[in-house]
Amino acid sequence: MNSAIIHEHIALNPEVRFGKPIVKGTRTTVAEVLEMLANGMSASDIAEDFPAIGPEQVRACLLYAAYKESIVLLAVA
């Protein structure tokens, strides 16, 4: 897993959006990006609506979610 892309594009700040992970330079949460993807938006659709969120930021959101899921699975096992 490429954690560098996560650190480059995802931030945790307790003063922004109640500490939820956000796309750096925005107030858009990782969960919101994932929800947009789940509702059928493509990375280019997201970039059109949110110019600060390009394909690399979307990829970072997906990697962040995959990383968090693997942590949960390891903790349960």
UniProtKB/TrEMBL annotation:
Pfam families: DUF433. InterPro entries: DUF433, Homeodomain-like_sf, WH-like_DNA-bd_sf. It comes from the Bacteria. This is Uncharacterized conserved protein, DUF433 family. It comes from Hymenobacter psychrophilus. The lineage of its organism: Bacteria, Pseudomonadati, Bacteroidota, Cytophagia, Cytophagales.
